[in-house]
Amino acid sequence: MPVINWNLPKMVSKAYAPLFTSNKRYIVYKGSRGSGKSESAARKAILDIVTKPYVNWLILRRYANTNRQSTFTLLQKVATQLGVSGLFQFNSSLPEITYKPTGQKILFRGADKPLSITSISVETGNLCRLWVEESYQLESEEAFDVVDESMRGVIDDPNGFY
Ligand SMILES: Nc1ncnc2c1ncn2[C@@H]1O[C@H](COP(=O)(O)OP(=O)(O)O)[C@@H](O)[C@H]1O
Ligand SMILES: [Mg+2]
Fold first, then answer.
1. Rounded to 5 degrees, what are φ and ψ at 131?
2. Pocket-testing residue among 28, 38, 39, ligand 1, by greatest number of atoms within 8 A of Cβ
3. What per-residue confidence (pLDDT) applies to 2?
4. How far is the CA of 57 from the centre of ligand 1 (A)?
5. Is the separation of the CB atoms in 99 and 109 below 8 Å?
6. 9: Cβ below 6 Å to ligand 1?
7. What is the mean pLDDT of residues 145-161?
8. Which of 81, 115, 124, 146 lies 20 to 30 Å from 3, alpha-carbon distance?
9. What is the average pLDDT score of the chain?
10. Tens digits of residue pLDDT in 6-39
11. Where in the sequence is the signal peptide annotated (predicted)?
12. Does the beta carbon of 12 sit less than 6 angstroms from any atom of ligand 1?
């Protein structure tokens, strides 16, 4: 197993440190375009998958097709920058990203298809991380609540959290 040499302070700017250190259920970032929100979330997603075997991610956006064009592509780029893209399988037609050593998943959904969200299950660990990209675009809080409420249940890892 190769050693991954990650320097967290170099990977993200200070404003995004809580994203990497907090165990809180909800973290919200707002800020001008290009201020690093999406990049930092992508780094968090990749780092969590590699370092926490219980973690699977759901990435939600208003529309499934914009999710594919933005977050899926960004995660590919960030995994390459972090030197771990070879550990992931990127299926752009689903879209879906699999961490090859364990089968952990990064899944993508659009709030335009709410039924596709409530029926998700993962092969290993828990579906315990949700990244809502451009959350202001969601038309109602209900769309968020449906997904939020599906994020529950016992996490096997004693340090695990939602
Ligand atoms: N370590 C880093 N963290 C965040 N963004 C970075 C980093 N290094 C370079 N960038 C660049 O800064 C910009 C951040 O944009 P983005 O994450 O899309 O911002 P936002 O989502 O807030 O609009 C991108 O052009 C990205 O390539
Ligand atoms: Mg963004």
1. -115, 115
2. 39
3. 64
4. 20
5. no
6. no
7. 91
8. 124
9. 92
10. 888 888 889 999 999 999 999 999 999 999 999 9
11. none
12. yes
